[in-house]
Specification:
Chains A, B: This is CinA-like protein. Chains A, B: It comes from Sandaracinus amylolyticus. Chains A, B: Belongs to the CinA family. Chains A, B: Pfam families: CinA, CinA_KH, MoCF_biosynth. The structure is a homodimer. The first copy, chain A, folds into three domains: about 1-170, 3-Layer(aba) Sandwich (Molybdenum Cofactor Biosythetic Enzyme, Chain A); about 175-250, Alpha-Beta Plaits; about 260-410, Maf protein, CATH 3.90.950.20. Helix content of chain A is about 40%, strand content about 25%. Chain A contains 15 helices and 17 strands. Chain A has a six-stranded mixed β-sheet with strand order 2-1-3-8-7-6, with helices on both faces. In chain A, strands 14-13-15-16-17 form a five-stranded mixed β-sheet, sandwiched between helices. In chain A, helix 2 (about 20-30) runs parallel beside helix 6 (about 155-170), helix 3 crosses helix 4 and helix 10 packs parallel to helix 15 (about 390-410). The two termini of chain A are about 55 Å apart. The interface between A and B is large, with 86 and 90 residues.
């Protein structure tokens, strides 16, 4: 059962606003079991709206259109729908009364132009708008169910939940199941390599990849004769993917990397202290994005200057002079300083050159030193040369540092 | 001269991703003088990609397509482009070398699957990718210029600027000019009120608003018989907008709020120390996102626990016990502690309840205390009850704190 989404409005074709309605609708339709094959955006032109409606109706069983139901002269969707059907418009008095009541309730004068929001193609089904002025409506075009909704996101969503989903839920049978695995640590090409052959040997499965730097999401989509069967296949293949990618997989769906790291600490009753330089607070911001992170994060000292490294973390001035602030020695001293200051189980430190300036031949932009200090264990340091611009270097460095924390927590076990 | 944008990817038709590429491209094409009539999104299906390319090529002179150029099996755009042309693929050795060099530079192993990123439809024009692996390419289809670009936003944008805009700029006459003013501190409704009447008195001007929390961007779009004239009008109205919105306007186009705050400090030779609690490093991460921020940021102490507030910032334990960690007294002591610790000119502190837990009747979730300490001036504290979820509360709190820093720097003058 295929479906399509149509967004109407010159403000969209001009790129004046991002089309969040389309992605929201596409996701809802997908979850209902529809195969959404295309999303379209057309400007406020009756001819093009009509043409697009006919093209979509000839291909899909369900079409959800948004926008162009307002009171102004460039709101042409209702006229276009009527033309596509080859019928006229008729005024719907109950809707007009509802619009009048709404204005009265807001203590506002209803303008004449608002009356057109109560006009609909003859024979259309009205979809009352519980939270706004313009009702939506539904028509049957070439055997396709076409729903027209206002473009205001919260009004559109409410009408979808109140009227559209109940009307179409029975049309689609949910025969797919998708599991999204979130990974960090392997480049997309390597992920693809490690998973090669799965789709060939599992025709019911499609693997998708989405890079949202620095993470890569692997989507396992399984198709079967019913949802339960599809879910079983998806779970089995998701396990295969986990086996092949190892600990690069940190979670599913909406799990976050910071949440994963926090869980590794919380499960073992471990506390963390952070010392940041080039990441400038990013690591702390990531860790504390997780509710309850105060249970395990004791301290994050963003010591941007050498003076701060010395005053707050007790990093030896001589050490910095001799090795430079970007060195394994200083990273180690920062981690140990943070560990001692907060009396934590784990201390992690990052010092590097995020650029664009500050690079040298010996230490080019992207040079980053990491250190992990542990109560009762030797401090470990490592260096990497990270690619990309300042923001990417800082983001990647934050992930690498937190990955070191998670790995240390896992290998360390309970406090 | 009409144009269209095509976005390719099942992650888009399933609504897993908001299509920001399409709106960005639509805006750029519009600014170049093209009439963008439609935006389309299709899933990763060769047949539908081919069909859509042909349909768009028959109607528009310029088409920009994004997505599906990656190394994985669901990247099918190149094959579809070749089928639409009725030609085969050929390997482009210079591109393959470039990809190899890129992997070598990153010290990574190039996997076999990446080689397909150097395959293009026979006769296609290659569009080198200066910031990523996959090059784009351009073809001529039914007299339409069709550009294929990677879906990774920053790679796509770079190739548009390097290759696409130079190739198509001459096809359209540019008769508009847009200036984007970035603001923080006024709700969208207030911004709209303060700017009311401008469009009525300036028919050649359209004002657009884009909220990207917590900032609001005001777009001044001017139309005229030629670009120079349009630019003149846009500049004049932009000044009117600045006059009406006052210091809520912090910059234009790609200026960042953190960059603005940094400039206020740098211009006056002032240094900053930060003490964070609920924002957990966000303020530091924002400040240090600006290259050269080490000139003015001396320290950011993320003191999540009371112990850290005491140990690092010298906040009196009795004070915390008596007023609670979320109080004006503690915020003030944190700011003064950071100021003294780093011997900075300005010290800013934030302590609050970001939620979802931790709220009380007296101090509900969203309660945030701010303090600004200055060398040789009394410490100022203020409180706000911030709306939204944990992430919004933290983000808004970070902006409010930095706004206090910028305002203090301005009123303080040179060090």
């Amino acid at each position: 059962m295929t479906a399509a989404v149509l967004s109407i409005g010159t403000e969209l074709t001009r790129g004046e606003l991002v089309n969040t309605n389309a992605s929201w609708l596409a996701e809802r339709l997908t979850l209902l079991g529809f195969e959404v094959q295309e999303l379209r955006v057309v400007d406020d032109d009756v001819g093009r709206i009509v043409e697009t409606l006919r093209a979509l109706a000839s291909k899909h069983r369900v079409i959800v259109a948004t926008g162009g139901l307002g009171p102004t002269t460039d709101d042409l969707t209702t006229i276009a729908a009527a033309q596509a059907l080859g019928v006229g418009l008729e005024r719907h008095e109950p809707s007009l009364d509802a619009i009048r009541r709404r204005f009265a309730k807001l203590g506002r004068e209803m303008s004449k132009t608002n009356e057109k929001q109560a006009d609909f193609p003859i024979g259309a089904t009205i979809l009352p708008n519980a939270v706004g002025t313009a009702p939506g409506f539904a028509i049957e075009l070439d055997g396709a169910r076409v729903f027209f909704l206002p473009g205001v996101p919260f009004e559109m969503r409410r009408i979808v939940e109140d009227h559209v989903e109940p009307a179409i839920a029975s049309l689609a049978e949910r025969t797919t199941h998708q599991i999204r695995l979130r990974t960090f640590g392997l480049p997309e090409s390597v992920v693809g390599e490690k998973l090669s052959g799965i789709e060939e040997s599992e025709p019911a499965v499609t693997l998708g990849y989405r890079a949202s730097f620095p993470e890569i999401e692997v989507k396992v989509l399984a198709r079967a004769s019913n949802h339960a069967e599809a879910e079983g296949i998806a779970r089995r293949i998701a396990q295969t993917v986990r086996d092949r990618l190892g600990d690069a997989v940190f979670g599913e769906t909406d799990d976050t990397f910071a949440g994963y790291v926090g869980q590794m600490l919380r499960d073992r009753g471990l506390t963390l202290a952070i010392a940041e330089s080039c990441t400038g607070g990013m690591i702390g911001a990531m860790v504390t994005s997780v509710p309850g992170s105060s249970e395990y994060l004791l301290l994050d000292a963003v010591t941007y200057s050498n003076a701060a490294k010395h005053d707050l973390l007790g990093v030896d001035v001589e050490l910095m002079r001799h090795h430079g602030a970007v060195s394994g020695e200083v990273a180690g001293a920062m981690a140990e300083g943070a560990l001692a200051r907060a009396d934590a189980h784990l201390g992690v430190a990052v010092t590097g050159i995020a650029g664009p300036g500050g690079g040298t031949d010996a230490k080019p932009v992207g040079t980053v030193w990491f250190a992990l200090a542990q109560r009762g264990a030797p401090t470990v340091t490592r260096t990497m040369n990270l690619p990309g611009d300042r923001e990417r270097i800082r983001t990647l460095a934050s992930y690498v540092a937190l990955k070191m924390v998670a790995d240390a927590a896992i290998s360390r076990g309970r406090a």
